[in-house]
Amino acid sequence: MNDNDLRLDGNAVGGLLGEIFQFEMTTAQTTCAGCGAIKTVAELMLYRHGMGAILRCAFCDQALMRITCIRGCYRLDLSGMSGLQVDADVH
Amino acid sequence: MSQLKWQFTTLVEAKWETPTVKTLVLDAPAWTGHKAGQHVDIRLTAEDGYQAQRSYSIASAPDDKNLSLTVERIEDGEVSPYLTDVLQTGERLELRGPIGGYFVWNSDQKKNNSQPLLLIAGGSGFVPLMAMIRHRANVGDNTPTRVLYSARSDEEIINREELEELASKDSALEIIYTLTRKQPKHWKGYHRRIDRQMIGEVAWTMKDNPLAFICGPTALVESAANLLQEIEYKSENIKTERFGPTGG
């Protein structure tokens, strides 16, 4: 097994993001601050580990979203993205 | 706007589809409906409070009577062996959903008829695609649809009987298998991993304005998506969902 076998995609964090956000987040559009790629959360590469999840750009590997939940507190680091567009109509 | 909430369902029926894949039919009184292609999160809680959580694709169509999940038993998995071997009919199962808005297909007579479907599956990645095929059949949608299903052997093809029955009654639904490890005697179909030649023979061309859904292990999904891009598919024509050994 190599690292690629552990890579999933943003579809798999729909439940986790649903705990935090009111809107359907897997269809939200992200803009990568590294390369400018515009992709939905579902199309980002997901790496999960004990502490939480990291969503990376499929093109340049930039970490767009880091999510942890520690002691009942969600922490999100979104510094790797320059934009996030969420559709208010869809859930 | 509803926040995702955990709910209890009851197992009403269970059926082995293959030696390692089982369908769980659930009574879900709090279920609010879903779209074909969505999944649920399942949560198991041990007596000491330890919890394990996994995602499983919904196998039933939105228009089916019951919610059903089709689960592959992962050896050494934490959740799937419980679902396939331990959970008995009448027992409760905790889940939340439906989850996901990207890897979904809705029958829309006006819109989708002009956009033929290419459904590519590897192993139990077929489950969300079967929900789409069932939905399409239930509503009498005649969107031209080709299914390319990669399985290790014919025993591992999920829902084969139902699939072939649907295809026998519907000239717009074509099923193409590739059996990568073991083939029955006199097998005339593909017997290798999905490759460029196969995609060239099976896939709609871009002039058909197709919509492809690919679900399976990460390597298969990425290889199939790359091959489609080589024949000029744009990323908006390809929807992917990867699952991996973290499943279990």
Account of the 3D structure:
The complex is a heterodimer of chains A (91) and B (248). Chain A contains 1 helix and 8 strands, in the order E-H-E-E-E-E-E-E-E. Chain A is mainly beta and 91 residues long. Chain A has one domain. In chain A, the strands form 2 sheets. In chain A, strands 1-4-5-6-7 form a 5-stranded antiparallel beta sheet, with no helix packed on it. Chain A has a 3-stranded antiparallel beta sheet with strand order 3-2-8, with no helix packed on it. In chain A, a hairpin with a 6-residue loop joins strand 5 (52-56) and strand 6. The longest helix of chain A has 7 residues, at 14-20. Chain B has 248 residues and is of the alpha/beta class. Chain B folds into 2 domains: 7-99, Translation factors (Elongation Factor Tu (Ef-tu), domain 3), CATH 2.40.30; 109-243, Nucleotide-binding domain of ferredoxin-NADP reductase (FNR) module (Rossmann fold, 3-Layer(aba) Sandwich). Helices cover 21% and strands 32% of the residues of chain B. Chain B is built from 6 helices and 11 strands. Chain B has helices at residues 80-86, 109-112, 126-138, 160-168, 196-202, 218-230, and strands at 7-18, 21-27, 39-45, 51-57, 67-72, 92-99, 117-122, 145-151, 173-179, 211-217, 238-243. In chain B, the strands form 2 sheets. In chain B, strands 4-3-6-1-2-5 form a 6-stranded antiparallel beta sheet. A 5-stranded parallel beta sheet of chain B has the order 9-8-7-10-11, with helices on both faces. The relative contact order of chain B is 0.16. At the A-B interface, strand 1 and helix 1 of A face strand 6 and strand 11 of B.
Helical content band of chain A: under 10%
Percent of residues of chain A in beta strands? 35-45%
Secondary-structure-based class of chain A equals mainly beta
Domain count of chain B: the total is: 2
Rounded average pLDDT of chain A? 92
| Mean pLDDT across every amino acid position of chain B | 94
Looking across the biggest beta sheet of chain A, what order are the strands in? 1-4-5-6-7
CATH class of the largest domain in chain B: Alpha Beta
The tally of helices of chain A reads 1
Biggest interchain interface, per-side counts: A-B, 26 and 26 residues
How much is the radius of gyration of chain B in Å? 18 Å
What is the radius of gyration of chain A computed over CA atoms, rounded to a whole number of angstroms? 13 Å
Give the distance, in angstroms, between the N- and C-terminal Cα atoms of chain A: 36 Å
Report the principal-axis shape of chain A.
Answer: globular
- What is the third-level CATH name, the topology of the largest domain in chain B? Rossmann fold
